[in-house]
Amino acid sequence: MYDTIKMYKLSLESINERYLTELRDEYNYSTGELVRKGKLDNLFINKHKWGVQIKGSICKYYYGNNLQTLTKNDTKFAFEKLNDHLHFNTGNSKITRLDFAENFIMEKPIVNYLNLFSELQRFQMMRFSNNVYYNTSDKKIAVYDKIKEVKGKKGDIPSKIFLPSDNVLRYEIRLLRRIKKVFGKEIFQKDLTNEVVFNNLLNLWKDLYFKISKKPIIKIDDMTFSNTKQFFNYLIYLTCEEKGEENILKLINTNKENFTNKVAYSRCKSAVRQKLKNKNFCKDNELINELNEKVLETVLKYK
User: Which whole number is the average pLDDT over 202-218?
Assistant: First the structure.
């Protein structure tokens, strides 16, 4: 499930350059440092005077692609391969970025699922045709069509991978900085195969997914109303659904200065979210139920 990593190790040790390509020396004018740069397959290797920095997809480095999922056991083998190639022990390298992901084979085209993703509190949402992103200063969540992403980068689907369909949805979280805040301690490369660290990350991956609002199916034909208030609440719900939760909340944010106080502003946003969760006006979406089950199955598989 690990994918892109970024790590560094303070060390005066040399590294083996035999397997590196695109070798070059670059002068950093801001630090006055000469940096030796190269690539090990898809990994970027930088040799500084203070140590070594490595960045790239450890999954793609090991398998040759990141359509396969890097298992806990293979994570160990991947870093052993890296150490063998560099003649350098990366175990005490400090992790400064960490991506955690899984690919799901879905029943329907991926755009059908992406259209159902809505707001996530404290994250800025960005929607595109083939992906949905949620951003903060130190985390990023990405949900996207993996096959279109691969083809968009002019990549090929490896012949060794059997895919029953092109409907591959990828859900990943990216810890871009402040990783210590997530785990309560600094994380090093050797910790990535630790059961506690892996399970904590797996739980975070699951919890963030279920915190994302998903669009339900609106009840229409089977609705009954016993009073006027219920009907008008239903109209409010229909309006919010038609405009989209993210657009309604953007409208509230745009008019933030028009609220007489912060409490009223906050309560208005909360009221919209609660209206959209009203089970009397909606029912579960089968596509979201399908994806929910796959997320939970992944957690059970790797626990």
Answer: 90
Does the CA dihedral 140-145-150-154 come out positive or negative?
A: negative
- For the entire predicted model, the pTM comes to 0.84
- Specify the higher pLDDT residue, 267 or 188: 188
Any residues with CB less than 8 A from the CB of 275 and at least 6 apart, and which? Answer: 233, 236, 237, 240
Residue-wise pLDDT tens digits, 101-135: 999 999 999 999 999 998 898 999 999 989 999 99
List phi, psi (to 5°) of 16.
-80, 125
Q: Are 284 and 217 in contact (CB under 8 A)?
A: yes
Cα 204 to the center of its chain, rounded Å: 11
Kindly state the tokens that stand for 141. Answer: 């969540």
**What is the reported pLDDT for 303?**
81
Spatial separation of the C-alpha atoms in residues 270 and 268, rounded to whole Å: 5
Q: Which of 53, 43, 2 is nearest to 19 (CA)?
A: 43
Amino acid at the residue 158: P
Of 67, 122, 106, nearest to 288 (Cα)?
106
